[in-house]
Amino acid sequence: MLSLRVNRKTYNLDVEPETPLLWVIRDTIGLTGTKFGCGMALCGACTVHLNGKPVRSCVTRVSQAVGQEITTIEGLSANAQHPAQIAWREGDVPECGYCQSGQIMAAAALLAKNPNPTDVDIQREITNLCRCGTYLRIRQAIHRAAELAAKP
Amino acid sequence: MKAARGMSRRDFVVTTLAVGGGLALGFSFPKNDAERAALAARLSGRPWESLSGKGDVEVGPWLMIAPDDTVTIRVGQSEMGQGVITSCAKMVAEELECDWAKVRAEYVSVNRHFRENKVYKRLVTTSSSSVRLGRPYLQQAGASARERLMAAAAQTWSVPRSELTVRDGLITHKLTGRTLRYGEVAEKAAAIKLPTEPKIKTPDQYTLLKKPTKLLDTPLKVDGSATYGIDVRLPGMVYAAVKASPVFQGKVRSYNADVVKNRPGVHSVVEFSGEEIEAGIAVVADSYWHARTALDAMPIEWDEGTHGSDSSEEFFRSSRATLDEPGAKVVTRKGDPEAVLKNTSQVVEAIYEVPYLDHTVMEPFNCTAQVTSNRVDIWVGSQDPENAAIDASKVTGVPVENVYLHNCFLGGGFGRRGNQDDVRQAVTIAKQLGGRPVKVTWSREETTRHGYYRPMRVSRFRAALGADGMPVAWTTRVVGMDENYPGDEQVLRGLHKLPYFVPHQLFDYHLRKTHVPTGPWTSVGRSQNEFFLETFVDELAHAAGKDPYEYRRALLEANVEFPFAKGWIDVLGAVREKSAWGQKLPVGTGMGIAIGDSRRLSRTEITICAVVATVSVTQKGEVRVERFDVAMDTGPFLVNPLAAERQVEMQVAMGLAAVLRQEITIEKGRVVQANFDTYPLLRPTEIPEIKVHFVRATDDPIAGMGEEAIGWVAPAVCNAIFAATGKRVRSLPLKNHDLSWT
Ligand code: FES
Ligand code: FES
């Protein structure tokens, strides 16, 4: 038995400690907004926050997440109102959308530590892959999210 | 015509509140976000489920109307990012004259399609066909419903239909000032049969179509609620991890289930095979991770069959040799090109090669199935739910009327998700599980190694240039590995009917068959052929000492037999102007141009597209595509300019990834590449500035927008590399070339 905090809720789970956090989130807890893309930390589709820091949950053992606040796309904000989510809607960023939970989680973590990132910051910090090539719209949306968050 | 690119300037009230110790910033909002409230309820995160309520009335199979005037429009095409749900709903709403803000969408019922004599016409999403083929009957469905609603109002008031007008779902009788809402007459309308079907609007009458429209699925894709096939969860569901024969067409020789049966969560081990199913083994467990780790731990021996030593290197070698044999099939013969070639002093010859490519859908392959003796349920993101249901019926023996396919969002399609191998496999596994639902999930490696690949292809071009540098004779010979799918047409597309004027021509080809499965890949045939053709024209221009833009233009102007020459010249001119073609560039930077029109043998519609790539190459040979200009013909309208622009962007990204470093190679009969490290996608740092320029060059509706730009990405980039470095690239991907220069 192991106890996990996900989106401000506590779950007591019967999983092996070496299970990747991704599969605990998706299969055991049933939050499927976090996606499986590669399983090798190559794409970022599985990005969640551990205490606000972005991690690739496909290569994070669940035992490493014990005692930390885990945030998934479902828990990023109440009613999907994080500035990144608003900006993503405004800019119609997603195409197929499969990578976008991970993109938004990566963007939200960047904005939390750097409220006004430059293009260079974005390129350095957001390495998530998008098959549909939405990178330009993502970049614009991050700038827009920074603007939204800065509004009083 | 270009859609607004910037963010809309709505005023959102934003309050930031830090929640919890050390957490990421959480944001909450005192006021309702009207945009979200309006959009969120317009499409279910589970798109196969209906949002319509009890009081909704069906007015024809395509739509429901609620007492509060909400209209639910049914969509038969699959959403994979191209915006098709929004576009299809718009085509119905255009005629319905309802309030777009009150439109909801849902997928049609695949089951009903079969039970009611294919009522939804076509449930396939390929070849940019959704607008091209869907528009007439979707408009008709909207017009028909509108007229029934109007007839219902006319009946209610006992006035002639001609005295009524409608706007945004509000019917008005001008003479008396009376009004009725759609929601009030829907029930009556449902019972009305029209004596004749109304005429549908022509593009000049459109009001809703043509305008950029925000996409109905966007809100679901920013909060995790969009349900892809891989996200489906059912009561009692088990999970399967699969391994199919690494050598295509192999068999399972032996495996040892005892090794894994006591591992945690393992339910069973299932062997699968069948017609058009790659034989393999599934481990079924209570979670994907349990299934996957058990599968990895299980020894499996394969019977590799007769292809265990085949390689793509050998396919290339033998194809090159085949180039010396006259083509088995001749497409074009005009004049006597061989004789002219023999007697001309300036002859240009080039051999081009392109590899197998995978589709690399972002969502690893998966399918969930439940099979009982008299009913089959399937949850999958499919480009072809109609044939998927038919295949499920064949595999199980359950009549197709009892197959229920619940189509999900697709994490990418690109042609890959219309082969139904996922469905055939999952149903075969589910059949052996006594009615339990099972979600079959492929690893990324399995997804890469069991594709239906874009066929590799080899070609040889020869041209004799006259004293003015223009081609007098031209021969094209292609060897395509396409025989598995779909045969000849893929090999011909783009090369049949040369757009450029050449008096003597020969085009012939060979089709070869290998054991490697091939299938449609965005633009089907053109991503190979256009690379050949548009690179070769560029080679001719340079051999003639002419500007590649001017050279193409002159060849088009001379080709009086080519009906689309004027449109081509217009689009070519647009991209020339917008890209500032011919501008002075730094050393090591060059521009490359390419054009085509996606014409096919089997249809009359085209979409003319011309592109210019601006590429820099470092002296060490590192390539950077700086900017990509795309001029695209819109014809008289685009159904949703916003979606169209995004589709072009997607194609540029997809095309660039392929040009830079994607290839599927075969060694020992199996695919070498496995995950994103060996089969890389375009990285965020590699996306160029993309400029989409919509131009109206033709009067007829275009063929579509889903795959009409990608073919020209490779030749434009390679032509730009030549301009930058003087190095001519004749095979892809670029990673196999040394592009360093001094
Ligand atoms: S699934 Fe975790 S990085 Fe790709
Ligand atoms: S939107 Fe499709 S992979 Fe990013």
- Provide the gyration radius of chain A in Å: 15 Å
User: Could you name the ranges of chain A where pLDDT drops below 50 across 5 or more consecutive residues?
Assistant: none
Contiguous helical run count of chain A: 6
Under CATH, the topology of the largest domain in chain A is which? Ubiquitin-like (UB roll)
Query: What would you call the shape of chain B?
Result: globular
Identify the CATH architecture of the largest domain in chain B: 2-Layer Sandwich
What is the structural class of chain A? Answer: alpha+beta
Question: What is the H/E string of chain A?
Answer: EEHEEHEHHHH
CATH class of the largest domain in chain A: Alpha Beta
Major sheet strand order of chain B: 12-13-10-20-17-18-19
Contiguous low-pLDDT stretches of chain B (5 residues minimum) are 1-33
Overview of the structural elements:
The complex is a heterodimer of chains A (152) and B (742). By secondary structure, chain A is of the alpha+beta class. Helices cover 38% and strands 14% of the residues of chain A. Chain A has six helices and five strands, in the order E-E-H-E-E-H-E-H-H-H-H. In chain A, strands 2-1-5-3-4 form a five-stranded mixed beta sheet, with helices on both faces. The mean pLDDT of chain A is 97. With 742 residues, chain B is α+β, with helices and mostly antiparallel strands. Chain B has three domains: 193 residues, Aldehyde Oxidoreductase, domain 4 (2-Layer Sandwich); 143 residues, Aldehyde oxidase/xanthine dehydrogenase, molybdopterin binding domain (Aldehyde Oxidoreductase, domain 4, 2-Layer Sandwich), CATH 3.30.365.10; 330 residues, 2-Layer Sandwich (Aldehyde Oxidoreductase, domain 4). Chain B is 28% helix and 23% strand. The two termini of chain B are 43 Å apart. At the A-B interface, helix 1, helix 3, helix 4 and helix 6 of A face strand 2, helix 1 and helix 17 of B. Bound molecules: FE2/S2 (inorganic) cluster (FES) (2 copies). One FE2/S2 (inorganic) cluster (FES) binds next to loops of chain A.
